[in-house]
Write a structure and sequence with these properties.
By secondary structure, the protein is mainly α. The chain is built from 20 helices and two strands. It has two domains: 14-479, Up-down Bundle (Growth Hormone, Chain: A); 526-567, no CATH class.
């Protein structure tokens, strides 16, 4: 018997220069898309003054982007799987860049809002395409955990970075540069996409088999749902209009599910939700983002309206959030291989809840260091833990042909969570403020107490997210990248001389061969038995001298590649 060699590890793409550049490119896509959801918030007063927006129409500068972004995400994600991921990434990026230029040059409110609607469509094409390229490019489990950790960290940092950049650009240059700043990033993405990402020609089904009805139902339902959430604080939650629109959105979603169960080639195969941890991660992120997004919105208003901060000062106040989010994301990426996703998501949501609760106690005459800084640092660390955890839980175990769809689902939960938080908790804050103003309270006091109530509701949402996370499956590295190898080389037994012949298998039973260091076991099993054991058991067949029956094609290839004998 020859010495036991260690086979070489499967190549790590992330360990190469090209792999690092691909990850940089994809993170740039996620950063710019999520940044644009928050960068305009601080510029809104300047936009209103220059273009003559009314108070009612001003909210649509921010909301129009969320409306089409959230509404077209599922269609964009599935289109990436069917039409080609690079193709959709390039098309969406070009559309995003053209609409950003139109927004920056806008001379009227109609042009600006129209440009924001088109920007949202471009982002709905870009984000799921980029995230699915990430999950299919980094094949090994170690690479995938690190890449998804980087993506989640970028998502955690982008919200705070949007406030910082928005404040600096608005104060020092012009509000138009919150849109023009996208153009060099768009140019980089377009050039790098053709240089770094291989083109693909997926075998798309014939047009007659495409789920056109399902695409129309889910896109209409998502658009109407996001519209209701965005418009409800203005119209009122109890009005017949809001209740009717909400019922219509839910009816469209229900019809979509009914259609998917019966279509031969559904837009969203419902079996996708059987993947371990996927739907729980999506639901958790909806509630978590409802809390986090509300915090950014209300604390910004508190600093500008109550403390009278300038836009640049309010933006720079969020710099510690970016540091906390980066630290939390880095810790989460290193911890997932050891403890899985569930403890990280739950801990992050509880940290976020604690930070937002501290912010809910801000006084009328507050100052930055004692009243704002502790809460936003704690909350920032929580954001990093949550977003890295949910990205790994929702995308890690998805097969390649469904990667775009899974990416669109987790991104849609991000956008829906933000819209839901603004709809519910900003309504709470506004209602409380209006009550106090009617009772002749000072405006600053009424605003502050209203913000306190909205932030308290946001902290409760984060606690609920933590409770859901605790009940969710704990997704570990072994559950991720179902078609991938590990990065580490594995020692396998190899006999000297020619490879042994495969044992004879009779028609009725098969005898297990002896493995090095173990006596032969005469357990008899049907030769035609199909492999139904778990992926962990499959892995044992080719990683350790265990007696595990396996006739899976993938496992047979791995055994042969390592010089071992397939059982």
């Amino acid at each position: 018997m020859a010495a036991i060699p260690a086979t070489s590890a499967p190549p790590s793409l992330l360990g190469t220069r090209r792999g690092k550049l691909i990850l940089l490119l994809l993170c740039a896509v996620g950063f710019i898309d999520l940044l644009d959801a928050s960068i305009v918030n601080i510029a809104l007063p300047e936009i209103r003054a220059h273009l003559g927006f009314s108070v009612q129409s001003l909210q649509w500068v921010a909301s129009a982007y969320l409306l089409t972004y959230g509404g077209f995400l599922l269609l964009g994600g599935r289109s990436a799987d069917l039409l080609g991921r690079r193709r959709l990434l390039v098309a969406g990026t070009a559309l995003f860049g053209i609409s950003s230029l139109a927004c920056g040059l806008a001379g009227s409110e109609g042009v600006l809002i129209g440009g924001r609607l088109v920007q949202g469509v471009g982002a709905a094409m870009m984000t799921p395409a980029a995230l699915s390229i990430l999950t299919t490019s980094f094949h090994t489990r170690g690479d995938r955990v690190k890449a998804l950790g980087a993506w989640g960290g970028v998502g955690a940092v982008s919200g705070a970075a949007g406030s910082v950049f928005g404040g600096v650009l608005t104060s020092e240059v012009s509000w138009r540069w919150v849109f023009f700043v996208n153009l060099p990033v768009v140019a980089f993405i377009l050039v790098a996409s053709f240089r770094l990402i291989d083109g693909e020609r997926p075998k798309a089904p014939p047009l007659r088999d495409f789920d056109t009805v399902g695409a129309g139902l889910i896109t209409s339902g998502m658009l109407l749902l996001v519209y209701v959430l965005v418009n409800a604080p203005t119209v009122g939650w109890g009005t017949a209009r809001t209740l009717g629109e909400l019922a219509g959105a839910l009816a469209l979603v229900a019809l979509f599910v009914f259609n998917e169960q019966r279509h031969s080639n559904p837009l969203v195969p419902l079996s996708l939700f059987k993947i371990k941890g996927l739907w729980e991660a999506d639901v958790t992120q909806v509630l978590a983002m409802a809390g986090f997004y509300t915090m950014f919105f209300l604390v910004t208003l508190y600093m500008e309206e109550v403390l009278r901060y300038s836009p640049i000062r309010a933006g720079l106040a969020y710099l510690p959030v970016t540091v906390g989010a980066a630290v939390g994301a880095g810790m989460a990426t290193k911890a997932i291989p050891r403890i899985g996703t569930r403890p990280l998501i739950a801990a992050g949501a509880l940290l976020g809840a604690a930070g937002v609760f501290l912010l809910s106690r801000v006084p009328v005459d507050g100052t930055y260091a004692p009243d704002i800084l502790p809460g936003i640092i704690i909350m920032g660390a929580g954001v990093g833990l949550v977003l890295v955890g949910v990205q790994n839980a929702a995308n890690g175990g998805v097969p390649a042909d469904k990667a775009g769809l899974a990416a669109s689902l987790i991104t849609a939960s991000f956008q829906l969570g933000g819209a839901l938080g603004l709809a519910v908790f900003v309504s709470l804050a506004t209602g409380r403020t209006n009550q106090l103003l009617a009772a002749h309270a000072r405006p600053s006091e009424a605003l502050t107490l209203g913000f306190q109530r909205g932030l308290l509701g946001a902290s409760i949402a984060l606690v609920i997210a933590a409770l859901i996370a605790l009940r969710a499956p704990n997704v570990r590295v072994v559950d991720m990248a179902p078609d991938a190898d590990d990065n580490q080389p594995l020692p396998v037994p190899a006999a000297s001389g020619p490879a042994p012949e495969a044992p004879h298998v009779s028609a009725g039973q098969a005898e297990l061969p002896a493995l090095p260091g173990r006596a032969a076991e005469g357990t008899a099993v049907p030769a035609h038995r199909e492999s139904t054991h778990s992926r962990a058991a499959l892995q044992r067949c080719w990683t350790a001298p265990r007696t595990v029956l396996c006739d899976a094609r993938m496992c047979r290839r791995r055994c042969a590649a390592r010089g071992g004998r397939h059982l």
